[in-house]
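User: quick one, fold this
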Amino acid sequence: MSISSTIKSIQDIMRKDVGVDGDAQRIGQLVWMLFLKIYDDRELEWELLSDDYRSPIPESVRWRNWAADPEGMTGDELKEFIDTQLFPTLQNVHDYNATPAAYVVRGVFEDAYNYMKSGQLIRQVINKIQDGIDFNKSQERHEFGNLYEQLLRDLQSAGNAGEFYTPRPVTEFMVSMVDPKIDEKVMDPACGTGGFLTCTIEYKRKHYVHTADDERTLQATIFGVEKKPLPHLLATTNMILHGIEVPSQIRHDNTLARPLISWGPKERVDCIVANPPFGGMEEDGIESNFPASFRTRETADLFLVLIMHLLKDGGRAAVVLPDGFLFGEGIKSRIKEKLLNECNLHTIVRLPNGVFNPYTGIKTNLLFFSKGSPTRETWFYEHQYPDGVKNYSKTRPMRFEEFSVEQAWWGNAEDGFAARVEGPFAWKVSADDLKARNYNLDCKNPHIGEQVSHDPDELLGDYNRMQAEITQLRDQLKAVLAEALERQA
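Assistant:
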């Protein structure tokens, strides 16, 4: 049985339990169990590699000692054990063990809950996990990425807005173009389930890790922060699954809640790859952590200001942003002015409709820039659907190979991308022209005239995108009006 089939059967069992209400609680219940199973699988490997390995988890609550036996505890005994021993112990595990690994475990469980009421059903779920999932098999580790997407789809249907799964081809392309070297610190300040960071780990291992010392260097260069408990739990699990033994650098926090000026030089990083949440609004007061000219409650705008601040001079970034940022005015224009003056925004890859379906129909863009010198010109590349494809879907997802055209065209940053040439889908705009446009980066392809499509799927996609943009603008207007009324009061 595949992992996705196993997860579906587990969720079917959970639906029978009166204590679990809705997809969000089912996923929350599932992921803490998955974490303990995955951690135990990894510990088996670490114990083989090192005679000195000591688990941060007390023996009585290690997965192998209470869950692995299919004939083990069940019913009321199991339910009582989980509620009165397992959770209290893991939520205070640093009292037993002060190692960084213990603090990672505590971080996972401090916001986790056991929602299930039936010990018999809990035993059925545990047995499914024990028998159906072995993450020491490389094939199943790879399939875990598909599991993340399935869980996030469930979260979306549960109404948890703002949870986006960035398609793996997009994360791979962004990381490969940023090209993080072995000793360069890489950060995602809104890391979600850790997709960009796992791509970075795999990229570094493939291109730069040759010795055990290289691997130790890699382990110390991955940094992430995630605000929401469930994605943070998934990110921590994902790091362990990808060989980061103590993922203490994946913090559960809101990066925006810290005053911008408090980020010191020692916290600057070499590379940032991120898809900051867009379309959402931060809670009152968060904007006061930023300079007055950039104060807004719109999450994506604040993250871009933060990303520019966190980069070292010479640092590189790749960021996903919606069309609304490109053409937005007011504070957005001031942020774009800062971006072009302090960074070299050398490339914007414009993605077609459907890349982020079903999460959003808003068109998105990949912005690539380096810090330390102003922008002289910005290249645009309009990504094309493969032949015969009019939109992406679950049965026809985007593939990494589609970016081979952009990769062949990309050129070398060291010579200022001198080898780039304009073509049907590539063009450049000078910084002076962008300034004259009041920093409107929504530059249309000059090689393609205005076209009117009569394809019903394209028209429906355009309509849905317009509706999403209208909703986003309405929410922004409401926030601005609310702030104005507060000031008047």
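User: anything notable?
Assistant: Residues 158-162, 450-454 have pLDDT under 50 and may be disordered.
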